[in-house]
Predict the structure.
Amino acid sequence: MGLGLAVTPLGVTVPAGGTSQFSATFNSVLDTTATWTATSVDGGNVGSIDSTGLFTAPAFPPPGGVVTITANHSGSSGTVTATATATIVYSDRSLNGPYAFSYAGNDQAGFLAVAGSFVADAGGLIRSGVEDFSSLLTGVSIQVPISGTYHVGTDGRGTASVNTGRGTNTWAFVLTTNQHAQIIRFDSNANGGGTIDQQSLDALTNLPTALSGPYVFTVQGADATFHPLAMAGAFTANGSGGIPSTDAILDVNDNGISGSGVTLGDTSVNGTYSFDSVFAGTGRGTIFLKSTTTGSNPREYAFYAIGTAKNSSDVSIATQLHLVEIDGTASLAGNVFSAPASPAGLASANYVFTSGGNSSAGTYAAGGVFASNGTGTVTGGIFDSNSAGTYNSGPAIAACAYTVNGATGRIDLKLFTGTGACPSGASPSVSEFAVYPTSQGTAVMLEFDSAAVATGVAYQQCSAESAGCATMNPSLLGGSFALGLTGQGIFHNSAASYQSDLIGQVRLSGTGVTGGNLDVDNFGAAFEGDPVTATGSSITAPTASTGRGTAVLAASNPAATYNLIYYLIDDDTALLFGQGASPIAVGAFTRQF
């Protein structure tokens, strides 16, 4: 209130996408000439307010979660102002429009993978959609129409009931914005983890030009004999439905933990692709890839396009595709990303990574930070791994050279945790990866040593405050964060080995954990809204050199303790690694507000 000007209501909670009417009085008389603004100290999307004081909330909370509503009155004595606040919470309107999704996990027989797309109506209905499903239990189902309902809670956690040709599936998810969510399958006797991503309208075209230029990919799952299988590679789409073998490459780790099954540098990769004319406008299509390593018959994948960017010819091209194999030869799932036009290796920076899959002992997960000098050498870092519940206690990474293939962009990366000179050949102290940089500044990874069959992703760590990064300041770890953890491991008919998946929201004070809720699927049972308690929970500040810290989340119903390591990418995002015996998982931690 200032000089007789007042705004009502003084404070109100508004669901995302909803409205609230504000009014101003001047000397107790309704002021119809007041001008209105909506602002936030921390910026972000604050919604809008019209000339009558009708405020429309943004689709998700801005930083801090609060919008300041200001009324201005101009008169003969000058301008006076008065303010009120609108606290924004998530709602069903936070999920609105076309989305692509994918998740992978296990059912009663073993590995399952699902990818698809749907349209949310902002009111709790999934109006239309389609998915492709690969399971060791039920086989492959393609072009399955889906529909259903969903609900988004005020903290961004939500559930969806999805009707498919195989019955009804339940999802649990947590939104970070209206464009992205982390998802888990939330049924008994089936679990999995993945993402929901809003689709660019340009990605919903059926024109083959939407796939054009260089791409990189990883897929992981089970081969025909139920052994873990992972692949990574690069190819170029020609914009008219063809994938020539020029500058293409494939690396395969087919149960290489048994001492064989690894094939590297196959340059015979070629294929075709097309968008789906039956489900036009969904972003769905198919890719056929064949190579000497994978056999004479092409491997067929369903894809769902997500984002787009303009290429040098001002044509919108897909920057990411969700993949699921649908030919029945193997059960694989993963992602395709657009790649740089000119491969340049790794910049001089820290890189945060996680990966997961199988070791000879069982479930496997890894994570860490490695430093590249930009000229072909990893100079340091830290490496965490968890093999069937045995944690390696995070040894330091020592100096080791890496090589870059100038034609394909493929990087042969060694993470050396021993002493002395980096070995030139295989060694227990070396984890070796085929790494493929993307055009988004990330990289996909395939581990091909005898320790694990695993795939992962690496992100360049933000380090300059001018770029919005002050990641080593522990006070920045305050606010509400969405988290997701996906259990790792590919097992055949071994329910006791299947790892838990969870999503949730956790509230941080900057020095500790103040609360939150988790949704947990333990394969045999699903638990919604498991409270995170301040007692027993904690978080340590990230180290200055790597941005690595630790966190303990203590849940109370059912009681469980999750011992995690986090690796900061920037002020708002971190990758997660589970260092305990359960779940052996990797995931992400993203600021909501």
